[in-house]
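Input/output pair, single chain:
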Amino acid sequence: MSTLDVLFLGDIVGKPGRRIVKNFLSEEIRSFERRPDFIIANAENASHGFGLTERNYNELLDIGIDALTSGNHIWDKKEIFTYIDKADKLVRPLNYPQGSPGVGSRVFNVQNSSIVIINVLGRVFMAPVDSPWSALENEIKRIRGEVRNPIIIIDFHAEATAEKISLGYFADNLGVSAVIGTHTHVQTSDEKILYNGAAYITDVGYCGAYHSIIGMEINNSIKRLITNIPERYDVAPIDKAELNAIKLSINIENGRTERIERIKYINEINEVS
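Output:
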């Protein structure tokens, strides 16, 4: 096998997101030429839209996901502190301050190859964190000193498009295989392969309720914007759900991505969350 097929699922939002991912992995994935060799998903919104419970962490692994990334909502469910250090398939942002629970990168062995997953937070329009630039450069240098010919995939969880694109080219110069943007929940149509072989997309999108505002209930979201009064965000009810993802074909020998494909899957789900 000369390439690895990697599937990256966008931010999973609540029960609708978990349901659509389960449906996709159990049904539609059969239509692929072959099942992906490795499946990654961003899960920072998987537990009722904010954070990740241990139960939902295990649920997502049980349906076939191999690695879970996160973002600025990783700490929203306080039980994360009780299990993150033993959650060996979960990655939190690398550029949180030193001493934060969990790890910012993990190595996974797949088909006699090593896939490294790194999660990084942006700083533009986001809460203050350490520099993603120096954190990423130092981590890649460390990894290359310990892992032979790693395939490196980055989840860049950030708000500003220019910051995402800039980090994409920065990481491409460091020889990574992919930079996948998350956080805005809106899939962009700018997927491409950069000069040195890194796949790039500004945002992979989300997995959740189809009739929603980035996965959340419509009326409360609109009311909050109109009144500027804090309003509770709830996950939108399920009638239909959508899944946004990226499929990558990565050359095992040189770590360059040979193909990037956007996926949008929509399915009726007759259950209220």
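The radius of gyration is 18 Å. The first strand starts at residue 3 and ends at 9.
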